[in-house]
């Protein structure tokens, strides 16, 4: 799966899961504010990412994640680590 | 398949809870046991006799790795199953005066009653949050709210369960998950079998030991949809011995 596919998959389920307009999602947009995430909502991200990509996210992974681009990069790295394991 | 997991479900209060949920709910009952398979199978038979479905599942709640392995294997075999109810009932006592208490007697009691709560509940909590519904009932004890001489280890573990119940209840309430504790006093089970009942009932205003079924009735209510506005509570069921 290349990066464009990863981004497309992530955006697809974010739109569905968090009921946001796809136009509000851009690489520079703030992930938390755009999706309206509260602290418990991160569980939805964690579970959906695991279901779609088979990678686990922990609390520490979200440190420094502000924008969608940060999030795409995080998932891409996690997938690479998993594939190289 | 919606499920209710009862840890330490093979005997005593745990068995009574499994049977009560079989009568009063539509849950598939997961009966956890540590070593007494025969008792667990007997409880399962009672569950089936009451028209419900269920299964036994072996793990030691105090062993995090064992819990994760057993529950992961079960979840893999039952990918559609949703555990909506967790009753953290497994507990042990190792009574004795604190001045003689060994490190093992302290650790074993804390590991089972307190860490067991963590190991089992933590395994399911993300799924429960995702499911936006859940009922968690933790078995505390009168020892955990008033303290009992000769049970410093058990009192400490159960007191910690009370605090954990209140904290977790606040964390997850927004997602329709309630977390409550039940604090029984003297209940007639194997655990209290060695106690001098005739002597001890003098301490109990109701003038008798409680029955496991009475605790099960309370748990059954707390895990029902009717109890959705009760969370973070510790409900004493002790015949008036302490309030």
UniProtKB/TrEMBL annotation, chain A:
Q: Give the metabolic or biological pathway.
A: Lipid metabolism; fatty acid biosynthesis
**Task performed by this protein:** Carrier of the growing fatty acid chain in fatty acid biosynthesis.
Recorded superkingdom: Bacteria
UniProt cross-references to Pfam families, sorted A to Z? PP-binding
- UniProt lists the gene as acpP
Q: InterPro entries per the record? A: ACP, ACP-like_sf, PP-bd_ACP
What's one GO MF term for it?
A: acyl carrier activity
List the subcellular locations.
Cytoplasm
Keyword Hydrolase among UniProt keywords:
no
Q: What family is it from?
A: Belongs to the acyl carrier protein (ACP) family.
- Region forming the signal peptide: none
Keywords (alphabetical) are: Cytoplasm, Fatty acid biosynthesis, Fatty acid metabolism, Lipid biosynthesis, Lipid metabolism, Phosphopantetheine, Phosphoprotein
| The name this protein goes by in its record | Acyl carrier protein
Q: Keyword Phosphoprotein on this protein?
A: yes
- Origin organism is Flavobacterium piscinae
Q: Modified after translation how?
A: 4'-phosphopantetheine is transferred from CoA to a specific serine of apo-ACP by AcpS. This modification is essential for activity because fatty acids are bound in thioester linkage to the sulfhydryl of the prosthetic group.
Which positions carry O-(pantetheine 4'-phosphoryl)serine?
Answer: 39
This entry carries the following GO cellular component terms, namely: cytoplasm
TrEMBL record, chain B:
Keyword Oxidoreductase appears in the UniProt entry: yes
Q: What top-tier enzyme class does this entry carry? A: oxidoreductase
Q: Which UniProt keywords apply?
A: Oxidoreductase
Q: What Enzyme Commission number(s) does the record list for this chain? A: 1.1.1.100
* Source taxonomy: Bacteria, Pseudomonadati, Bacteroidota, Flavobacteriia, Flavobacteriales
For this protein, the record's Pfam families field holds: adh_short
Coiled coil start-end: none
Report if keyword Oxidoreductase is assigned. yes
- Top-rank taxon of the source lineage equals Bacteria
**InterPro entries, sorted:** NAD(P)-bd_dom_sf (IPR036291), SDR (IPR050259), SDR_fam (IPR002347)
Q: Which PANTHER family match?
A: 3-OXOACYL-(ACYL-CARRIER-PROTEIN) REDUCTASE, 3-OXOACYL-[ACYL-CARRIER-PROTEIN] REDUCTASE FABG
Its protein name is: 3-oxoacyl-ACP reductase FabG
A GO molecular-function annotation: 3-oxoacyl-[acyl-carrier-protein] reductase (NADPH) activity
Family in the record: Belongs to the short-chain dehydrogenases/reductases (SDR) family.
């Amino acid at each position: 799966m290349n990066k464009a596919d990863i981004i497309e998959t992530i955006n697809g389920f974010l739109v569905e899961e968090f009921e946001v307009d796809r136009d509000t999602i851009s690489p520079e947009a703030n992930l938390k504010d755009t999706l309206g995430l509260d602290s418990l909502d991160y569980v939805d991200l964690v579970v959906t990412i695991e279901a779609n990509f088979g990678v686990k996210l922990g609390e520490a992974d979200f440190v420094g994640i502000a924008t969608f681009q940060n999030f795409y990069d995080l998932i891409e790295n996690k997938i690479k680590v998993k594939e190289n394991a | 398949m919606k499920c209710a997991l009862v840890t330490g479900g093979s005997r005593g209060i745990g068995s009574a809870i499994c049977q009560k949920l079989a009568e009063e709910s539509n849950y598939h009952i997961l009966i956890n046991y540590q070593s007494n398979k025969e008792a667990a199978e007997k409880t399962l038979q009672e569950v089936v006799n009451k028209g419900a479905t269920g299964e036994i599942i072996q793990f030691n709640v105090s062993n995090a790795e064992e819990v994760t392995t057993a529950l992961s294997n079960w979840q893999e075999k039952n990918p559609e199953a949703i555990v909506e109810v967790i009753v953290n009932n497994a507990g042990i006592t190792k009574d004795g005066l604190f001045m003689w208490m060994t490190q093992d007697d302290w650790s074993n009691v804390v590991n089972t009653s307190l860490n067991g709560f963590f190991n089992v509940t933590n395994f399911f909590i993300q799924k429960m949050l995702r499911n936006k519904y859940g009922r968690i009932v933790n078995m505390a004890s009168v020892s955990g709210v008033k303290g009992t001489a000769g049970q410093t280890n058990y009192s400490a573990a159960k007191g910690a369960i009370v605090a954990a119940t209140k904290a977790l209840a606040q964390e997850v309430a927004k997602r329709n998950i309630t977390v409550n504790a039940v604090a029984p006093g003297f209940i007639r089970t194997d655990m209290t079998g060695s106690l001098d009942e005739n002597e001890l009932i003098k301490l109990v205003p109701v003038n008798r030991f409680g029955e496991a079924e009475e605790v099960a009735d309370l748990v059954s209510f707390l895990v029902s949809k009717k109890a959705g506005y009760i969370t973070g509570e510790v409900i004493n069921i002790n015949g008036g011995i302490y309030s």
